[in-house]
């Protein structure tokens, strides 16, 4: 057991898979010699060499396209998109190509690859380098979508993503890179599509993702200490496949559902969960489902404004209290 | 071979590896079969037996045939939505191709992909891509795999002149050049991006070849209606890629006899242009070529009548074939064979 940063967990997760399987290769901008702009891939170039850790030009279409062509023909590529916002310049590969390949070819071709990307806000980068875009990918049939919130989940879900036979979009959170957590020694392999209950509780269910998971957990502590509200916090972790059973099971126990989403409000992932809960847990619910989200705005760079935009622990506490206590 | 150069491009033989009668007959057979299949596709459209859209290669057969004969088993083809010809040229059956256009169970993808996405992994056709330019980087990835694993196959990517103005084209060429990938880019310049002449929307005369220098590649323009010239150029580029000499880009000048797609009557063409190109029909050129090499008329007509017989048989088989069972609707979204996105 050792304490590891989220950033170091990325490198350890990739290294674990590259050591296991020679077919795992890694490409992206500044990932090799420079160790990544977030220093999340330090040491991989030195360890695995320039043939397996390949620096690319600033060519996001070529990065995802090449990863796809390699995956289709036998490799297990990991491609880095430096900022999740850049997905918009190569969205064709996620929206039209890798996601449709197996279906359109009647199963003749598959695309086992991982696109890992720096997602989310809170680091004052402004509107084009701060977005939380996990919902962009969630809506596309044929891809899987994960977003770990802790170092141990980074390693375990990275292993699961690399070993998965389908394309996986792996959302790392930029504001979590410096956070630390306990990580067991040895190989860590998780499973895609399993949510994690971070804190059991009986009064309400709070479903969160990425940076919002630790914030929801912090809020739950305040709710318990100061407001006598016992919140169950679920880290959704995987949007596709989506572990609805854990969420529905929690609602059956608590009778209330809150989602905490960093994405702008319209069509955020919580809307789908709210819809499922309304359809399938209606008689378990004791009140309306409440979504706590970033408002439907581009993110500002100014720290005081960005902090207002993203759901904070204080805002979660305030909202849950107001809804439950009137 | 000198790095960066393709030896003996053009109508002269490559070293001792002249084309030979057997290959010439194969080049002819492929062109005839592609022509007959494409004409049949057109007819089936008029009968409403092919739905959706379709992009024919009538007039462009020599490019597909030349590469089809030059490529080895294991070499990978990446095609566009105008991919019927290239799929047939790698050995896929007429039933599979026409059956897919007719969206029947007998089709290459059992009707799930349709005309624009023909794929036959069995024949190393790794897909037909309908988003312009998208497959150039994908072909780079396949070539990267070959380079990384030490495999000797070459990835060949076919596209139209219109693709040279999209970003992915330029990203892919740079990528292939810096990594020295075993990939061959083949531009079929048929003079029209879709309806608009490519010359009206491109800053250079040769949309592919004039961009080659930007990526340290040789500028190559060939007669895409002469299957021998295509074959020889393809052979040299494939050999160079296989030997570690890196990528090539080849611009094949050709012309489509029909419109861009089913919906296009091609009325934008200046009077007389089609007629001029029909005189340079690749099949006329090649029939004449065979005669110059002493092939008897009987042998030529035997290939032609066999092609017609095969097209008739394939058409009958496709017409008799059912559509796929409806459980295919949700099959193969994910690797478990199904479409489940939640528990």
Please give a handful of descriptors for the protein shown.
heterodimer; A: 326 residues; alpha/beta; Rossmann fold; 2 domains; 5-stranded mixed β-sheet; 14 strands; 37% helix; B: 343 residues; 11 helices; 6 strands; disordered N terminus
Termini distance of chain B?
58 Å
Which superfamily, in CATH terms, is the homologous superfamily of the largest domain in chain A? Thiamin diphosphate (ThDP)-binding fold, Pyr/PP domains
Mean pLDDT, all residues of chain A: 98
Q: Biggest interface and which pair forms it?
A: A-B, 52 and 51 residues
CATH architecture classification name of chain B: 3-Layer(aba) Sandwich
Number of helices of chain A: 12
Order of helices and strands of chain B: HHEHHEHEHEHEHEHHH
CATH class value of the largest domain in chain A: Alpha Beta
Structural class of chain A: alpha/beta
CA distance, first residue to last residue of chain A = 44 Å
Order of adjacent strands in the largest pleated sheet of chain B: 2-1-3-4-6-5
Structural class of chain B: alpha/beta
Strand count of chain A: 14
Overview of this structure, please?
The complex is a heterodimer of chains A (326) and B (343). Chain A has 326 residues and is α/β, with parallel strands linked by helices. Chain A folds into two domains: 182 residues, Rossmann fold (3-Layer(aba) Sandwich); 130 residues, Rossmann fold. Chain A has twelve helices and 14 strands. In chain A, the strands form three sheets. Chain A has a seven-stranded mixed beta sheet with strand order 3-2-4-5-7-6-12, sandwiched between helices. In chain A, strand 6, helix 7 and strand 7 form a beta-alpha-beta unit. The termini of chain A are far apart. Chain B is of the alpha/beta class. Chain B has one domain: Rossmann fold (3-Layer(aba) Sandwich), CATH 3.40.50. In chain B, strands 2-1-3-4-6-5 form a six-stranded parallel beta sheet, with helices on both faces. In chain B, helix 8 links the parallel strand 5 and strand 6. Chain B is globular, with a radius of gyration of 20 Å. The N and C termini of chain B lie far apart (58 Å).
């Amino acid at each position: 057991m050792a304490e590891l940063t989220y950033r170091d967990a990325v490198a350890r997760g990739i290294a674990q898979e590259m050591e296991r399987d020679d077919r795992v290769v890694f490409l992206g901008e500044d990932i090799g010699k420079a160790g990544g702009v977030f220093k999340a891939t330090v040491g991989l170039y030195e360890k695995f060499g320039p043939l397996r850790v390949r620096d690319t030009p600033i060519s996001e279409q070529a990065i995802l396209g090449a990863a796809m062509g390699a995956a289709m023909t036998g490799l297990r590529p990991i491609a880095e998109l430096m900022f999740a916002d850049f997905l918009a310049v190569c969205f064709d590969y996620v929206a039209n190509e890798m996601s449709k390949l197996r279906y359109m070819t009647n199963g003749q071709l598959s695309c086992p690859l991982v696109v890992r990307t720096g997602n989310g806000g809170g680091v004052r980068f402004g509107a084009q380098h701060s977005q939380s875009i996990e919902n962009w990918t969630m809506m596309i049939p044929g891809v899987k979508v994960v977003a770990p919130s802790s170092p141990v989940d980074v390693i375990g879900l990275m292993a699961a993503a690399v070993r998965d036979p389908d394309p996986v979009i792996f959302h790392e959170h930029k504001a979590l890179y410096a956070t630390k957590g306990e990580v067991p020694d040895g190989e860590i392999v998780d499973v895609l599509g399993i949510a994690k209950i971070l804190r059991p509780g009986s009064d309400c269910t709070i479903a969160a993702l990425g940076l919002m998971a630790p914030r929801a957990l912090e809020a739950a502590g305040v709710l318990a200490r100061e407001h006598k509200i016992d919140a169950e916090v679920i880290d959704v972790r995987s949007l596709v496949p989506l572990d609805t059973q854990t969420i529905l099971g929690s609602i059956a126990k608590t009778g209330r559902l809150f989602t905490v989403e960093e994405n702008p409000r319209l069509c955020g992932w919580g809307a789908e969960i709210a819809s499922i809960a309304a359809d399938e847990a209606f008689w378990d619910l004791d009140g309306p489902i409440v979504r706590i989200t970033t408002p439907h705005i581009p993110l500002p760079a100014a720290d005081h404004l960005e902090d207002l935009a993203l759901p904070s622990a204080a805002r979660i506490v305030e909202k849950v209290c107001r809804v439950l206590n009137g | 071979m000198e790095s960066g150069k393709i030896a003996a491009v053009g109508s002269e033989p490559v070293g001792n590896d002249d084309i030979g009668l057997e290959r010439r007959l194969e080049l002819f057979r492929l062109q005839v079969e592609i022509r007959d299949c494409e004409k049949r596709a057109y007819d089936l459209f008029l009968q409403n037996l092919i739905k959706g859209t379709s992009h024919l290669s009538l007039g462009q057969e020599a490019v597909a045939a030349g590469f089809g004969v030059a490529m080895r088993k294991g070499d990978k083809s990446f095609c566009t939505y105008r991919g019927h010809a290239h799929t047939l040229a790698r050995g896929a059956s007429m039933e599979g191709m026409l059956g897919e256009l007719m969206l029947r169970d007998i089709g290459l993808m059992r009707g799930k992909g349709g005309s624009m996405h023909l794929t036959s992994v069995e024949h190393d056709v790794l897909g037909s891509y309908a988003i312009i330019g998208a497959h150039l980087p994908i072909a780079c990835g396949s070539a990267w795999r070959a380079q990384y694993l030490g495999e000797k196959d070459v990835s060949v990517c076919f596209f139209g002149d219109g693709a040279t103005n999209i970003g992915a084209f330029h990203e892919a060429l740079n990528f292939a050049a810096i990594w020295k990938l075993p990939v061959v880019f083949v531009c079929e310049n048929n003079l029209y991006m879709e309806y608009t002449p490519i010359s009206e929307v491109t800053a250079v005369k040769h949309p592919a070849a004039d961009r080659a220098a930007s990526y340290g590649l040789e500028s190559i323009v060939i007669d895409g209606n002469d299957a021998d010239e295509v074959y020889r150029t393809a052979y040299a580029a494939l050999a160079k890629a296989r030997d570690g000499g890196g990528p090539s880009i080849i611009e094949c000048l050709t012309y489509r006899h029909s419109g861009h797609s089913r919906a296009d009557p091609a009325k934008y063409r200046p009077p007389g242009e089609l007629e001029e190109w029909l005189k340079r029909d690749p099949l006329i050129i090649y029939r004449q070529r065979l005669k110059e090499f002493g092939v008897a008329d009987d042998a030529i007509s035997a290939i032609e009548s066999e092609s017609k017989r095969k097209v008739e048989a394939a058409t009958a088989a496709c017409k008799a074939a059912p559509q796929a069972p409806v459980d295919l609707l949700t099959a193969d979204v994910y690797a478990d064979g199904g479409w489940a996105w939640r528990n």
